[in-house]
Design brief:
Elements (H helix, E strand, L loop, with lengths): L13 E8 L12 H5 L15 E8 L1 E3 L5 E6 L3 E10 L11 E5 L3 E4 L14 E7 L4 E9 L2 E10 L18 H4 L3 E4 L4 E4 L2 H4 L5 E10 L5 E8 L16 E11 L5 E9 L2 E2 L5 E8 L2
């Protein structure tokens, strides 16, 4: 697995949560056998100006329709929800080169995934990828405008307390994740990069206290290396909270696995570049007594 995918990627069970079209897709070419169709080369993507009508299809993990027929994605505060927007024309051809306008009415915020063309504009397959970080508890509205079409989704942000978990930022004396996630994260083909606010950069190399949830990386009861996350792990294919909402922990004496909130002391390292998908490390870590 590419290490970058520790911090992004869609879980199993990907579903289409929105589809808007102003014309039906064209039927497949007639007169070809099933074998010929299976090896037919893909057609080239059309440029935005080449098509008169467009179709938007929005994909996300664990999306559903509520009682009012609205499209909804649940996510915990400070956790990531990953989306993929597909843009096609009336004939079902992918539309490349489109940069969607994405807005959120609420406390959540959009996270650009610019490690590839599909995070800057729709790629040759008509795909555009982005993420959302959950804000304060509430129902936010996600609005996406692209190629003259608009689609909406609801973001049902749930607080850790409402979900039955303790909140790491409420522990006395910790560096809060609300501050750590202010780092500006960029994506490359090999990993992630980060620029840190002055108050966080000043903590590099100092001993700090962090609270969070364990994401084990080793097949043993006591973990010498694991990921500390700002939200409870809910999907193996991405780190809760994204690259700036988690820290790689190195604990020489080992820490026993628990699904409860843990409070750790250690030396904080801020990583301007990382192949591990997270931009913080906690070295020489141990449980705070």
């Amino acid at each position: 697995m590419n290490p970058t995918h520790l911090s992004r990627g869609l879980c199993a069970g990907l579903v289409v949560i929105a589809s808007i079209a102003s014309a039906e897709q064209a039927a497949p070419p007639a007169g070809l056998t099933a074998e010929e169709l299976s090896v037919e080369a893909p057609q080239a993507a059309t440029a935005p100006a080449d098509a008169q009508s467009k179709r938007l299809s929005l994909y996300a993990e664990a999306a559903y329709l509520n009682a009012e027929g609205e499209l909804v994605v649940d996510l915990l505060e400070q956790d990531y929800a990953y989306f993929s927007l597909s843009i096609t024309d009336a004939q079902g051809m992918p539309v490349a080169g489109v940069t969607p306008k994405i807005q959120i009415n609420g406390k959540s915020r959009v996270i650009d995934l610019n490690e590839s063309e599909s995070g800057a504009r729709s790629n040759e397959y008509g795909q555009f990828d982005f993420a959302v970080m959950g804000g304060a508890m509430g129902l936010d509205t996600l609005s996406i405008e692209a190629a003259g079409e608009t689609t909406l989704a609801r973001l049902n942000v749930i607080s850790l307390k409402a979900a039955g978990f303790a909140s790491p930022d409420e522990v006395d004396g910790v560096v809060p994740w609300t501050e750590l996630t202010r780092a500006t994260v960029g994506y490359t083909e090999d990993g992630v990069t980060a620029t840190f606010p002055a108050q966080i950069a000043a903590l590099d190399g100092t001993r700090v206290t962090l609270a969070g949830f364990m994401l084990p990386l080793e097949a043993q009861r006591r973990q010498n290396r694991f990921v500390l996350t700002s939200s409870p792990p809910s999907c193996f294919f991405h780190v809760p909270g994204g690259p700036s909402g988690a820290a790689e922990v190195l604990a020489p004496d080992g820490i026993e696995v628990t699904w409860d909130l843990v409070v750790l002391e250690g030396v904080l390292k801020t990583l301007q570049s990382s192949e591990q998908g997270v931009v913080y490390q906690l070295l020489d870590a141990q449980l705070k007594k």
